[in-house]
Design brief:
Gyrase A, domain 2, globular, alpha+beta, about 90 residues
Length: about 90
């Protein structure tokens, strides 16, 4: 996965996820919004074939990049758990 950082501050980040679509971006945004330190988490895909741009803004108690990393870790753990449950059927 290629990522381009457009803007980076302590409590705000804007980044582009190259070649990703709504499926991953919806999951990521939903997971990020569960963190109480998040003020804003949204993504935009301007055109059908454009890359999504993610914006995350926090209250300053946590760094925006850390929140994104934690959300990705949570998504990975959820996928691992699902694979374990499917494998035991």
């Amino acid at each position: 996965m290629n990522i381009k950082i457009l803007e980076l501050e302590k409590n705000k980040v804007r980044m582009v996820f190259v070649s990703e679509k709504h499926t991953f971006m919806n999951l990521l945004t939903d997971t990020i919004l569960r963190d109480p330190a998040v003020n804003v988490a949204k993504y935009v895909i301007e055109y059908q074939f454009s890359d999504p741009e993610l914006l995350v803004s926090t209250d300053g108690s946590k760094d925006a990049i850390t929140i994104i990393r934690e959300a990705c870790d949570q998504i990975g753990r959820s996928c691992d758990e699902l694979l374990t449950q499917v494998g035991s059927v």
